[in-house]
TrEMBL record:
This is PAS domain-containing protein. The keyword Hydrolase does not apply. It comes from Aquipseudomonas alcaligenes (strain ATCC 14909 / DSM 50342 / CCUG 1425 / JCM 20561 / NBRC 14159 / NCIMB 9945 / NCTC 10367 / 1577) (Pseudomonas alcaligenes). Keywords: Kinase, Transferase. Coiled coil: none annotated. Residues 11-81 form the PAS domain. GO terms for molecular function: kinase activity.
């Protein structure tokens, strides 16, 4: 049993390393929108470290978020236990991050696609959600350049 727990801890560390290195924003929050996981993508683009956001309300951290819209989306994920999505064409961003291509890019902000995933506890109840934020600025700029 102790050997299994040690292996599980090693695997947990690998998974945490992977989450930190993804070029995708990973944010886990509870039913009350309190942040529990905040990866390095989120740190780099928000300017806020994990220690600054952990346990705080996402709406307190980012009051510009459309609260009614996000509460509705997350509520559906929590009730149904299925993923939800938002594309940049529907809503250009969840969090207004600056683009990191100030010379070559034309956008004033980072266009984002969003996936909201339910995270079930051991008892199978969904108590947390994971928001994955994808930077799709290049694709959005290309599509907007082609628009009439």
């Amino acid at each position: 049993m102790a050997g299994e727990a040690q292996i599980d801890m090693r695997e947990l560390h690998w998974l945490l390393d992977i989450v930190q290195c993804l070029d995708v924003g990973v944010l886990v929050m509870d039913r009350n929108f309190r942040v529990e996981v905040w990866n390095s993508f989120m740190e780099n683009h928000s300017g806020l470290g994990a220690d600054q956001v952990q346990g705080r309300s996402l709406f307190q951290l980012f009051p510009e978020i459309d609260r009614v819209w996000l509460e509705r989306k997350v509520g559906t994920v929590l009730r149904l236990g299925t993923r939800a999505f938002s594309l940049w064409q529907q809503r250009p961003y969840l969090l207004r991050f600056e683009t990191y291509r100030p010379i070559t890019g034309q956008a004033d902000f980072m266009y984002q696609n969003l996936t909201i995933m339910p995270l079930a506890a051991a008892g199978r109840e969904v108590e947390h959600v994971c928001l994955m934020i994808y930077d799709v600025t290049e694709a959005a700029e290309a599509q907007l350049r082609q628009a009439p």
